[in-house]
Amino acid sequence: MKGIICLLLFFNSLCSLGQINIISIDTSAACRTTLHNEYKSKFQSLNTNMGTLTSSQQNIIKEIYNDVQNNFFDKIDSNNFICDDKVNPYLQKLMYEVLEKNGVNKKDYRILLSRNSTENAYNTGDGTIVVHYGLFLSLDNEDELVFVISHEIGHQYLNHVKEGIESYVKVTTSDEIKAKTKAIERQKYGKAAKANDLLKDITYQNYNVRRKKEIEADSLGFVFYKKTLRNPKAAISVLEKLNVSDREKDSLTIADYKLIFEKNGFLVKQKYFEEEQSLFVKYDKDKGMDVDSLKSHPDCATRIKLIKNNLDVKLSENYSVSDNFSEIKKNSDYQNLLNLIALQRYGISLYEGLKLYKKDTQNEVLRNIIYLNLVKIRNSRENHTINRYVPRRDNLNNTSSLNRFISFINNIKTTDLELIINNFKS
Prior knowledge:
The chain is mainly alpha-helical.
């Protein structure tokens, strides 16, 4: 019972579940207000520096900035960013280490920790580096984290975000694109196909620019990183992990559902996994564009090769050891499940929790997290709001394992769901 109470209070306090210390997450209004005011000032400065663009181009950029910045404020207001008096200063210290070793002005930079469970990090263009908590699921040591931060500093130092937006606007407002657009509008037939072809051309042109910028950020980031005297092999190992980060590392089979849920008379039925086939299912495989070529960190294999070519030292297997990193890494599986709950992504939190639980069915921490998600999903079914919290089946983007889970959640009878909930209730 103590475990459940602690989980219910995890948003506001440090709590021990078994022998696992779950990181305190500050959800106070003061934290959100401070971030909101800070970025209101940052964005005002960014919005007034438009360079030598035409008035029409400036108007388009202002619209882009407005959308991006409103989305950022939405993340702040929805408590997407973690305010923790131990983790945040630790990340800030690592970033300052890179900046100081390279003589870069620290006042222009800020680092935030997002609850996002994807294995990623990004630069916002105003000096802010955002690290997703999910990144810790892949990282094995502090040196890998420092290279990720160095890479994002490289993006900021080279002003890639601002230049990227301006480049895109210049392309889409160029005389060539305007002429092609007008030519398409004059056609009687095939407008949609022509417009789609033009969109692909612009997209791939933008992709090529992004690919170049990623390589530039790697190169400069690696220069920054080497000044820290940390293990250069970390740059290679983290890119190797990012290269496969979008591949599901585990799955749930029907046998797993039986192992996890069959208890106290409840039986897993085949019909729970059945799904009516869409009339359009055969078209789901037509991707239209090469999705893999549009990843947020494209062409890692090429980037790994370029870094290897720039190594001038013998690679060591010794990496930096840090108590702070070790603690975050130790708790990352649990904390990411809790972060998903905080973001109201109960379906994904349950799905990821079950994949861990099947390997450790005596784990009380996972048991309590699964129970909380099941209750939230049960309530959303009763309120007919389940699509807000559980993803939809998607034959194009979801794995077969995830689609199987979604079918299970949608097909299971309410009475059987209650049986499962009671079996997980401590």
